[in-house]
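Purpose: get a first structural picture of the assembly so the mutagenesis plan has something to point at.
Setup: two entries, given in the order below. No constraints added.
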Amino acid sequence: MKAIIVGSIGLDTIETPFGIQKDILGGSAIHAALAASFFHRVGIIGVVGQDFTKEHFEFLESRQIDVSGIHRAVGETFKWSGFYEYDMNQAHTRETHLNVLGSFEGQVPESYRDAEFVFLANVDPDVQLTVLSKMRRPKFIASDTMNFWIGHKQEALWKVLQKVDFVLMNDAEIRELTKEASLPLAAKKLFSRGVANVIIKKGEHGALYFSPNDHFSAPSFPQDGLKDPTGAGDSFAGGFMGYLAYTGDLTPGNIRRAIIIGSVMASFNVEDFGCGRMRRLREDEIYRRFEDFRRFSEFEQIEPLVTTS
Amino acid sequence: MKAIIVGSIGLDTIETPFGIQKDILGGSAIHAALAASFFHRVGIIGVVGQDFTKEHFEFLESRQIDVSGIHRAVGETFKWSGFYEYDMNQAHTRETHLNVLGSFEGQVPESYRDAEFVFLANVDPDVQLTVLSKMRRPKFIASDTMNFWIGHKQEALWKVLQKVDFVLMNDAEIRELTKEASLPLAAKKLFSRGVANVIIKKGEHGALYFSPNDHFSAPSFPQDGLKDPTGAGDSFAGGFMGYLAYTGDLTPGNIRRAIIIGSVMASFNVEDFGCGRMRRLREDEIYRRFEDFRRFSEFEQIEPLVTTS
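Result (structure tokens, whole complex):
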């Protein structure tokens, strides 16, 4: 398996101003793997319980996702229930039941250990570290996280951040972790602690890429069909890694294109509940939306200024 | 006078995490005119009191700004005092004293009435309407506003919005006015009420342009030297109009460049208190920062997708 993703696999109950859906397929690894699957075959590392149906496995396999790294444990699958208010910028948790995820250690099948592209989706940073330690020679490692781990496992989280090539966070998370309001200064703080590259996901405002020597501001998309933001960040990350695995090109220009692909996949993901939009998405739609991102953001250089009166 | 700006002229007392400055030159017309002055001569319509010093007039004239439209009234100049907390996204008002601004009606000198470029900076919408009614044949009209007028003079405000070519607002203001959380949907609501073009200023997140048939997402700038956000939106608007007056080109491609110029001028304005940065800004810095905006946001088209496994 050339590309693998470790993260949560869950059954989500989600309420937004557009409705409610119960026990639908979700979790960071699922959203990320589905987005990646439009570009490259990926394997998932995660755990499910006995209530995780055959239909879910069949759907993942229909998208060419390898499920041999999904451990089937005795008990129930991880469950998250939450809601979004009118502005839909912030998820509010009603209930979290870790269930089988609570004792998951990050078992990695032998066939995954030569993966070149590794994405550590949001999950306990100790699990991320375990999985990473089993990889033989990854060419590309990215990681995501969430506010809970910043508050509860920051030491393990720093170990992850210092080992990966690309750290993905949202703007609230990087501000919380660095205690720095300015995003450019927050990125600099991460660099001073050994982080290599930072991608800040800003939801409706697009995304930012910072490296010690480069910066890229990815445009927002004028999304007028937002239904459910759950998994947008995971879809971003999955699209980002999937496109890099597909092209095998880690040059700066292709990193930028991969960030736009991530933005494209996130923009689709939010158009329906859970994984609904990914179930019916087509490659030509991805290509056309990429063109939209260019069309909506391009502008030409000005002439040098000669001020008149 | 080919280009004119009506708005407030004030003496501001501003506190940010970087310090406090008292009774410094400010106001929407001042910030806008200073930004515009790097591209084209502009005339200001506004009012000051007897405490507005000769040095302020001399500074404005040194920037080739026409001050013959500034009415000198008996009393004190408009004064605003406010502070910004750590994240500096939101101004908190301590005191507002309208003083002579409270009875200002919008007197327009005869020499301004043939202006082709008119910017109605933030001020009482009745004053904006009075000034507009005195213009003979403007080619280009833009307007800005603030939350106070949305709450207190919404009827007059709508009259302004329906008469101008470009409405500039920040994201919080358009959400408040339209009661719509989604910015693309908020813009559509404005179009349904007769608004022609909308530019949404999003501070650190860049700016959006919506017309009924076009969209442009202007990138954010990685500002690591933010000192005082006061007047950023006015500088944006002044740069936007000043560049359009300078080029005389209202084609869609040039509207985009003018929006970037607006972003450039706002990015400079926040680097010092009040008008401090504008006092020492040079044309070559503007040109180079425009290049930075391009460098930080450009990306290439992808090849059509051929998914592999």
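Residues 252-269 of chain A form the longest helix (18 residues).
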